[in-house]
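Could you please consider the sequence and fold appended to this message?
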Amino acid sequence: MAFSLTFPATAWGLESFGPWSLVALRSVLAALVAGGVLLAARVPLPARRHWAGLAVVGGGVVVGFPLLTTLALQTSTTSHAAVVVGLLPLTTAVLGSLRTGERPPRTFWIAALAGAAVVIAFTVQQSGGTLASGDLYLFGALLVCAAGYTEGGRLARVMPGWQVIGWALVLCLPLAVAGSLVALPLEPVHLNAHGVLGLVWVAAGSTFLGLYVWYRGMAAIGVARASQLQLAQPLLTLVWSFLLLGEEISAAAPVAAVAVLVCIAATQRAGRRAGRESRPVRS
């Protein structure tokens, strides 16, 4: 739910800020929220061995994904971007299996690949068989975000999820402040209600709250299985794009989104069955 509002909120934010300013301010505000919570809770610094992983989280979900998707939304509609990003669950599952050693069953991968195939078919159909510059940004965002999700899910096994994203945001704060100081004078700012609300949501809702519950869920059920739940994000984003932005939705978009929801059910069923089979039998 939190992530599904990210693209519409970003589109609102772009009404007031340039893309570089929006991403930098988003990170600054989110880092201030996270830093305040960490200070209030008197959380000690993470062990040195965890800082490299936190840097991957920061580079993927705090800097890379917001920047690339914001640039993409300058030329792509939120409904189109949402379905393209439906490839993120498969990308995350693959990286998660390589990084954490999880081994989902064959039925899981069949369902995950089916969901990815629907997304690819939709993208090709919408673009007339060619990739637009916005799609290239989106595909780059998939890779960096999947890396951040995977590393964050791994770290959430040894520290609370809110601390994972909290320390990643704090680590990126100097870069975000520098980016704000450079971008704000170069990009025009036209404050309005939509722009301010969009900025607040992508900072506090998508970046901090959303990633907190996301990493906690990943730690509970595993990176691969949790990643497939995000196949629901395109359908929800299509609803918000229609209600909040008044975007016209092509007939193919809801069909593609519903199709990937079917794949969610299949991956979760396969994941639950694998989890039961892997548990030791008690005498």
